[in-house]
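Field log, afternoon session.

UNIT: design team B
ACTIVITY: writing a sequence onto a fixed backbone
BACKBONE:
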């Protein structure tokens, strides 16, 4: 059973490893290049479809960019502006301005295209990735981020953050070596429970875990998934989790985050055999 568990974990890791990261778009703020953490044209389905229909028939769709295009943006005079759209054809090719103006004809202000269809906060980043996917791919968290509030294309506010990580244990990136160390990390008084004789592992589920700024787990809910009738072990594991230190802490956009810890299910083996 343990080998099957490890094979399953390996399969999940392989899926994550080989999933193609999606290309990001870029925005220039005061001449500085930032990574956009979402695609902005897709917020308007009709506009997105019109743009895709305007791309040349021989443009190449890649697994790293299923939309088939990449937009480049800037903030000019407190307006979010679309500067250019590029597609792939062996190399990146800029979509002609006459086609771009035709597709975005309802959003032209003077000689620029303003994202008047957009009415939400957008997130941009720069610097090294401290959490998530590879550099310049959606889903990653960068050390420098801005949250920009957009009201029909107008910039109404910008909040700037410096994100960082305090190293410690996390279930994220959980591997075979970690599994075999859990008894050492989270010791349980198993000798007090003779009912566990013949049981090779316990599967715990933790939810609503909260880590404070010092790397201590201050609260969590623990359930025993397997074996049945072993709910009495939930409190023991809760004590062990709270006693462990340090847990990893992420400071993202001014808040303490417990990504990779807050909800998790993990096996706890009762011997060292594989």
């Amino acid at each position: 059973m343990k080998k099957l568990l490890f094979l399953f974990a390996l399969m999940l890791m392989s899926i994550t490893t080989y999933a193609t990261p999606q290309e990001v778009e870029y925005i220039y703020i005061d001449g500085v290049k930032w990574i956009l953490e979402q695609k902005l044209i897709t917020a308007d389905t009709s506009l997105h479809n019109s743009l895709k229909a305007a791309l040349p028939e021989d443009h190449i769709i890649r697994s790293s960019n299923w939309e088939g295009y990449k937009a480049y943006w800037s903030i000019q005079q407190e307006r979010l502006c679309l500067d250019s759209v590029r597609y792939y054809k062996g190399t990146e090719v800029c979509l002609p301005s006459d086609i771009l103006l035709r597709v975005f004809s309802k959003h032209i202000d003077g000689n620029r295209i303003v994202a008047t269809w957009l009415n939400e906060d957008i997130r941009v980043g720069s610097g090294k990735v401290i959490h998530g996917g590879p550099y310049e791919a959606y889903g990653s968290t960068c050390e420098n981020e801005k949250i920009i509030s957009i009201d029909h294309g107008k910039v109404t506010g910008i909040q700037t953050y410096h994100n960082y990580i305090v190293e410690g244990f996390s279930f994220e990136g959980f591997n075979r070596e970690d599994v075999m160390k859990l008894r050492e990390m989270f010791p349980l008084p198993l000798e007090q429970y003779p009912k566990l004789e013949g049981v090779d592992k316990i599967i715990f589920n933790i939810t609503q875990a909260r880590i404070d700024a010092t790397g201590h787990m201050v609260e969590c809910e623990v359930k025993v998934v397997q074996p049945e009738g072993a709910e009495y072990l939930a409190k023991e594991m809760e004590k062990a989790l709270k006693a462990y230190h340090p847990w990893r802490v992420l400071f993202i956009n001014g808040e303490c985050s417990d990504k990779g810890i807050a909800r998790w299910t993990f096996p706890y083996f009762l011997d060292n055999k594989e």
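LOG NOTE: The two ends are 9 Å apart (CA to CA).
NEXT ACTIVITY: expression trials, pending approval
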